[in-house]
Write a structure and sequence with these properties.
469 residues; alpha+beta; Uridine Diphospho-n-acetylenolpyruvylglucosamine Reductase, domain 2; Uridine Diphospho-n-acetylenolpyruvylglucosamine Reductase, domain 3; Alpha-Beta Plaits; 4 domains; five-stranded antiparallel β-sheet; 19 strands; FAD
């Protein structure tokens, strides 16, 4: 099949206007959010239904043409960007964006993969329910990508990541067959849990087209506070005390270094420091079914006691939702601020919560010795052990010189993570960024098990080649 005839077949399925071939039209799909990965594609196809996705995949499979699925293109690991061959078909799921059904009694929603996360959150709220996944890119990331990377965000400690939030999936397999696993069951012990193969697989085993996701009751009250602390180890101790005081009502516990906060204050219009500068900061959110005043009083009492015993040096308690949003904006805009500041090397890692302080102490010391001019921008989710441990380019250094040190920096950071029993990818995935790096930290047996699954489901190797494996 020639490239021209392939494009004609694809146009017959989705309409000529939804097969993009002109460089100006395809350009937004071929560059990642960070500007680190740029690829080429034979065309960008924009199907609007699962059946259209299936038909597109069947045509590509028959022609032996590789496929790159893409959601909101917010990946930080280049997972949704094709290689530079120009021979792949990029399938954008953005038109597959319907909310198919909400079952309030079952606390579930059936939603298509191209729906933006914020749209899902709003639909759940209109139904008097909460969809708890929350992350900085929620205004543009899509549900298919969230599932394909097993997204986490700030509420994992209470609600879990996407693996815990997904009950069922609909998937177009590499053959073009449609697997309908849209079951809204919390108990189903009838064989292998097949949906888990596709969650976190970054589109390498099939294309998620829809999902049954869990919903939760809307909390009656929410309280948010920002604290000044001295060390990450202090944050871990406070986490334990907060869990003791609020139990499962503790939604989020976010660590922010002063360097990270400084970039937000520098680059994000309207951002203001809530307290005097401190080496580290902790942002916490609690929710419950009591009246808002009762919850606020409880958190205020906790803060007063923490000040009295020296666990924190200062704190501010949001008095209304607008103030809470401003506090959250300081945390959620860190990645955007670091992007504006310039090139960075990113690490999305996890360690046991008890080792957060040790990891930061060891990694900071090793990097400062090897690269004293590099700035360490650290922040993340204390409640689940996931840290974003990034290095920003010195202002006077050229980009090429900075990036040349990435392998050495990765080795320092990842070896410490591995020594502490952690993972070099917590919630962003491997993509093409860590495809080779993971070979150092997974056993040959584990890698072969992954390859065996890939061969079984995608024997032609056409689904998102060059990612994960």
């Amino acid at each position: 099949m020639t490239q021209g005839s392939l494009i004609e077949e694809l146009a017959a399925i989705v309409g000529a206007e939804n097969v993009l071939t002109e460089p100006d039209d395809t350009a937004p799909y071929l560059l990642d959010w960070r500007g680190r990965y740029r690829g080429k594609a034979l065309c960008v196809v924009r199907p609007a239904t699962t059946e259209e996705v299936s038909a597109v995949v069947r045509v590509c499979a028959r022609a032996g043409v590789a496929i790159v699925p893409q959601g909101g293109n917010t990946s930080l690991c280049g997972a949704g960007i094709p290689d530079e061959s120009g021979e792949t078909v990029l399938i954008s799921l953005s038109r597959l964006n319907r909310i198919r059904a909400i079952d309030s009694a079952n606390n579930t929603i059936i939603i298509e993969a191209g729906c933006v996360l914020q749209t899902l959150q709003e639909a759940a709220a209109q139904a008097g329910r909460l969809f708890p996944l929350s992350l900085a890119a929620e205004g543009s990331c899509q549900i298919g990508g969230n599932l394909s990377t097993n997204a986490g965000g700030v509420h994992v400690m209470r609600y879990g990541n996407m693996r815990e939030l997904a009950l069922g999936l609909e998937v177009v397999l590499p053959s073009g067959e449609i697997w309908n696993g849209l079951r809204g069951l919390r108990k189903d012990n009838s064989g292998y849990d097949l949906k888990q193969l596709f969650i976190g697989a970054e589109g390498t085993l099939g294309i998620i087209t829809a999902a049954v996701l869990k919903l939760f009751p809307l909390p009656q009250s929410v309280a948010t506070a920002w604290m000044a602390i001295s060390t990450p180890s202090a944050a871990v101790r406070l986490l334990g005390e907060l869990q003791g005081a609020f139990g499962t009502g503790l939604n989020a516990c976010e660590l922010v270094s002063d360097i990270a906060l400084g970039l937000v204050l520098k680059h994000i219009p309207g951002a203001q420091a809530p307290l005097a500068r401190s080496p580290w900061h902790l942002l916490v959110e609690v929710s419950g079914e009591s009246e808002e005043g009762v919850l606020h009083a409880a958190l205020e009492g906790f803060l007063e006691q923490a000040l009295k015993n020296g666990a924190i040096s200062d704190a501010v308690l949001a008095q209304n939702s607008a103030q809470a949003r401003r506090l959250w904006a300081l945390r959620e805009n860190i990645s955007e601020a670091q992007k504006i500041e310039g090139l960075s090397i990113k690490h999305d890692l996890s360690v046991p919560i008890s080792y957060i302080g040790e990891f930061l102490d060891r990694a900071d010391a090793a990097l400062k010795q090897a690269f004293p001019s590099y700035r360490i921008v650290a922040f993340g989710h204390v409640g689940d052990g996931n840290l974003h441990y990034n290095q920003s380019k010195p202002e006077t250094m050229e980009n090429d010189a900075f990036i040349a040190a990435q392998s050495q920096i990765n080795r320092i950071v990842h070896d410490i993570v591995n020594d502490l029993g952690g993972s070099i990818s917590a919630e962003h995935g491997l993509g093409q960024l860590k495809r080779e790096e993971i070979l150092r930290y997974k056993s040959p047996l584990e890698m072969e098990m992954m390859r065996a699954v890939k061969r079984a489901l995608d024997p032609q190797g056409l689904m998102n080649p060059g990612k994960v494996l």
